[in-house]
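Hi X.,

You mentioned you wanted examples for the new student's onboarding notes, showing what a folding record looks like when two proteins sit in one file. Here is a clean example. The first protein comes first, with its sequence line followed by its structure tokens.
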Amino acid sequence: MLREAVAARVSEEEAPYDPAPPTPPPPAPEVKLGETLSPVDLPEPPVPLPHGLRWTTMAIAWATLTLFLLNAHALRDWAYRLPPSETSAKVVVLAEAWFDTVDRVGLNRPVETMHGWWQGMREQRFGGGQGNGQQGDDAREQSSNPTRSS
């Protein structure tokens, strides 16, 4: 009985079908920089501001180019850590060729200089890494890769 009463009430409340499509809302008014609700009154810039996506794209492109040019050692180290396969062998060859090309131009010098500074400070503090139970980089490499010769 309750279901029948509710169904009767719902059928009475239904609106008739209107075939006309709803009208779109009016366009939002253009708010200028000086007309925002900012607590700081900002004047309109003399030239239009650049598009945010263009700025972001340029920043990512410059960062990618900088890392590609100055981070060849990391690319080569990543290639060395790939699992052995024909594809990874090609990647290693390309990474080594890129490292050598960048090295000829001298773009590896900043990394080598900073690594030398870090190595010198590490040797001063830890005495070459052989004391207090720690192994140095060379001993660690040889223990993890016994086929590699020094």
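Then the second protein repeats the pattern, sequence line and then tokens:
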Amino acid sequence: MTAGQIETYVRDKAEKIFEDYGMEAEVTEAVITGSRCRGLEKAGSDLDIMLVYRGEEPKDVVAAFLNDEKLIIGGVRVDISPLQKDKDEPLENYLRKEREELAEAEKKARERKPGSIDERPSVREKLKRGRIAMETAKRQSMIKQARLKTERAV
């Protein structure tokens, strides 16, 4: 799944939970955040999602319902942090603070000796590699089909 597909999936899942439990809430945004989107995850790291919603349901109640589902995507547990639109700080402020915190963590990680941190590729990097592999396979298939067509014509 791409980052956009994951965000859409979580958004749809949250809307379904709101509907199933008769909650007066509507999702306005879902954004992947945290260490996985920066490639700083470690073994066992979860996938953090900031979910902005509009409604009167208290944020702690919304968080409890959303995380009670124990959502797993690609073998990774999803942690949903809700933000109440018009009552909490804007999403941009949270994302800016998070970028600053992650940049500091990244700087500290670089200062450690090599091999001391988990150097696995990030989710974004894995998705990018998968997309490139699919495009390469598609091109190779098209070349093979063109060669077969040419050989048959001769």
